[in-house]
Structure formats: C-alpha cells, structure tokens
C-alpha cells in the first residue's frame, strides 16, 4: 500500500529526523507507527545516520504491530524486523539475526541491558508507549537509564504522557534528554515545580503544582516534544477510522471454520446451531467477539483476543475516557469482568458523569445511543468491540462524539477479527451498504466458497 502522509504525519516524520531526542504525543490510530517507520527508514538508508534500531513496546504490540505495519506499506516492506521475544534462547537468536529493527517487550528491557552491558549496540531506540516508563523506581527505567549515554537517537511515542500528574513526566523526559530540561533527579524536579499537598507531618501523600509551573514545564520540553492536539495549525482530520486487526488463536479458528461449514458447534452443555443464513451470521459475529450462545442460552467462551486488544487501547489512551460499543450481553459481561472500572450507560446520571470526565470507560449498546444524545464533552475515543450490520445504528452511535462541540479529532477503533464475518461487516459499513441484506449476501458468498 502506498503511504500518503497527512500534514500532521509529515510534521511528525520531520520532527523525528531533525531531533536526536524526540517526544511524539499522538493518539492511537493517528499513525505514530508508520510515521516512525518512515523516519527510521530515512535515517537508516537515506541519511545513514543510524545503524541499528531497537523498538521497546508492550508485549502484544511487539508481537504484531511493528512487523505488520512494516509489511503493510510499500516504502517500508524491505525493512527486516526481528522480534526479540519468548524464551531466552529465542531472544538471543533474534538478537543475532540480521535485521534493521529489533523489537522487544518492555518486560525484557532489564534482561537486554544486562545481556549487552557496555557493549550496547543500538544507536537508535524507539519507546512505544513512553508513559509506561513513568516510574523512576521501576527496573525498566533504571536499566534503560544505564545505557542512555550509548544511545545516539531516541524517540518516545505516547498519547498522553502524564494523565494523572505531571510528576510522572520526569522519568519519561529524562530518558529523552538525560535531565537537560527538567533536571537530573526527580527530587530536584519535584522541589522546583511542585509543593506538598496532602501530608501528615513528615509524610507527604501528594504534590500539587506551583503557580505557573505547568506552563513552565510545557515550555521547557516544547522543543523536543510535539503534541498534535496542541498544534492548531496542523491539518488534523475531523475523524479517524482505525481498523485494529484481531487474530484468532488456532483452536478458536478451528471452531469458527467448523461452525461456518457445518452450521453446528457441539459443546458438552449444549450445541451452537445455525439453521439459517441469518442465524449463522449472528453466531459467527458472536464467535468473532469471543463467545457465543448455545441452544440453551448458555454462554460458551471461545477466546479473549478482543478483550486483549481493548486492553491495549486502554493503555495507549493513558487515562483518556473511552466509549465502547458492544453488541451482545455476553460481550458486556466479559468486558465488565476484565475492566472493573467500566460503567454501563443506563441514564442521565451516567451521561452527566461521562461529560464531566468522571468515567474512564463507558459501555453502551448502539441501539441505546440514538438521536439527540450528547456525549461529546466526555471524550473523543470510540471502540467498536463488536461490529453492527446496521449502518443507521453505526452512524448514530459514532455521532454521539463526532458532533458539533467536539474539541478534538474523534478516533473510532474497530476491532475486526481476521478471516471472519467482521471483515464483511466492515466492508459493508465502509461502502455504506444498508441493512442486514448486505451482510447476508457476504455470508452466502463465504458459504459458496466453502462448498
């Protein structure tokens, strides 16, 4: 696929190329990965400025996202990505494999630093989710701090670097500039910009910003850190549709194929039966989400991949509120079991709390968020956990945030399970096909292929 960068993406690419230490604060779905890969490609093979690149990322992102993005775009397909994951012998083997980019999960940063010591070979490091290095006491921070003098170029990627307190910003900035802007120690940073808030004699429980400190901090880091939301002159799109691919585990894929082909999926407590194309499409959509109702109405859980992907989105959102649309009751119960702080949209109290920024994750069925419901003050991130075949419901639901009064670019994440009916639904929605007829046609087409 040919990459045609938006103006804000081109700005991000040039910022990385021109800055040996670069912080890029850009929401998930706005192209952080492809922008960084483009800059890495240029620095490796156009400017010849770096030789070996390390990407530190959350485990699931390290496993899939960076290699998938490199393969997706024409100009980055040539980049060799080695995944330094798994047992130690696999990690060592991956480190010695010829590659342009080495990707490791952040839990293994300490191991990597100990493995190389002073012979640290990576002259460029990209930290995907810089905010996961917000604790100066964490082993991963202390390990990376040791080798920071050996790193020529460093890039920190995140959405919101300090969602809870600007105290969290110091370790992240230290990894970028080694204390040049905010001080060499967290103690000096805290004393300069904060004052005790809640305390009990000698014990300080929390800190609050001194007058003018927030503006001063932002000014200090503004030359190496760019936030796309803060740059009003950038050509940010009003809404960004992001398709997040979900891969079925082997056993779940077998069950999906069996149901699709035989219209039957046997379980000990009751079978999943699909006797018409409409029922089959419904059951396949459920299974793609991770669970399915059997003939007795009992929930049969199949996989957790969409829950894992939603967890990744929550982490990347860094405290920004998320509106999640679900389709089935078992989707709702499984999300609630995983995310204890999630709250269901039931009435005016929930709407008021959401718009006041008091709800981290709001769960809603698209049919319950019809015309006239204003939720734009509470957030700008939508996640479709399960797809809907109704174009009307899809458009109405998105319009709860994507409407007049919204101050940020709305990001709509779609969790689309590969090789399933989810892909057919997504194509129908993108083509603005109306109603379930379009989905049934897609299901019939799949069945014809299997015949």
UniProtKB/TrEMBL annotation:
Keyword Nucleotide-binding: yes
Coiled coil segments of this chain: none
Gene Ontology MF terms: ATP binding; helicase activity
Origin: domain of life: Bacteria
Protein's name according to its UniProt entry: DEAD/DEAH box helicase
Keyword tags: ATP-binding, Helicase, Hydrolase, Nucleotide-binding
Pfam family, one: SNF2-rel_dom
CDD domains according to UniProt: DEXQc_bact_SNF2
Domain Helicase ATP-binding: 13-179
Key word Nucleotide-binding present: yes
Organism listed in the record: Bacillus glycinifermentans
Gene3D superfamilies, sorted: P-loop containing nucleotide triphosphate hydrolases (3.40.50.300), Tandem AAA-ATPase domain (3.40.50.10810)
